Amino acid sequence: MTRKLTALFLALPAAACTHVAADSPQAPQYGAPTAIASSEAAQGVWQSRGYGYILDVSADGITRYQYGDTCYATPEETKALSEMAGAEYSLVALADDGRSARFQLLSGDTRVTFDRLDALPDACVRNPDTSPPAVAAAFADHFERHYAFFDRRGPSATQRAARLASLDADSSDEELWQALAGYMEGLSDSHTKLIGVVDGEKRRVQDGQGETLPHIREGIGENKFVVGTIVGALEQLGDSAHHVGNDRVVWGTIDGRVGYISLLVMGGFSDNKDFASEAWAEAELAAFDAIMDEAMTAFAGMDAVIVDLSNNRGGWDRISKALASRFAAAPFTAYTTQAHGSGIAPFAHVVEPASGPTYTGPVYVMTSDITVSGGELATLAMRQLPNVTQLGSTTRGAFSTPLPKPLPNGWLLELSNETFAAADGTVYEETGLAPEIELDIYPAAAPVAGHWQAVEQIVAMATTTD
Description:
Number of helices: 11
Keywords: Signal
Mean pLDDT: 92
CATH superfamily of the largest domain: 2-enoyl-CoA Hydratase, Chain A, domain 1
Distance between the termini: 43 Å
Number of strands: 22
Radius of gyration: 23 Å
Shape: globular
Organism: Qipengyuania polymorpha
Largest sheet: 8 strands, antiparallel
Structural class: alpha+beta
InterPro entries: ClpP/crotonase-like_dom_sf, Tail-specific_protease
CATH architecture of the largest domain: Alpha-Beta Complex
């Protein structure tokens, strides 16, 4: 059991880190999304608003170019570094004037507005310069154009670019890597990372892991921590315990009075491995709905429900919103999104109550500084509901979609380019979502035992009667 849990958990970050974003439904009018492969009208060259992409769509498929100060096709070797780097748009909704379109990875997922170009820019067909200064220049250009949070995670792009000044044509891959890593130092953004192969070794630069995870990794180790908290919850839930969704969800009832559900990630619940396909999306949503239908039926009439996101590592935003829909009595705005540099107004994401069983009694959402990305979006959405109380500690503060930007030499940069805001316009990037009630869920001396002790404190709050 332990090895199975460990193997599954280590695979979680690859589940699905896509974020739902969209532009405001302004004129011109767009038709219904259709498959790009079957749309002759979609063929041609398109440039994105924001995102820095040019697409060359033909009957043979899509060639994606990274566009900025330079233009180059996505290197093939980059696609092996990340599932998102290799994912391609499958749907398109054309405007009535034929001059703009919305491209989507999946139905209901990110909609990115593109404008039609008459031809592919000449710069895109030239062989890209892969010298260290050219790679560094493309890297810095991507950051300057698309990174949304220099105001929250300084210093500025200009100041950081100065850290690349020592590079020249004779610089080694190691020197280039160290220079790019130096540019990123201090960002404290777990959604912004550099992945590449240097001298045959795969490397990653990623900051912003909070305090709890680094402490656990240096202490008992992350695998022992994850397995320990899961096994502890299953033991405490006893005969009511369910461990489902490829071991990513634990749920049950406590003393017959309080429902408990813990999600480690927002995805990976099905056995479908065809990531970013419609079949994958349908399988994921079906698996999640089946889990929630059974759990919410069991929670009917309970004094309260605890939604444990304190060890949630993020995932697919449609799951985040689907979770919130199970606790809503009426439609509500969960949050808004806006892509940096797109010129498109923030788009409001409205959550409708689920068609399956719901629970509208008292809900307690557990968070920590491990809670990140899709886990934070679920928390942000649920905080809009009058029956929800957030407890624990402040979340990580990394909401934005990781925008994949391959570099000319095949390395992959991912950076935060979208601003997620609460319905009132408040942005919690970097600061995180502070709880209404502080609880030390993972105390440094005993993070595994402390987890269920925190659950017990919440149960006591939820079942106290006058």
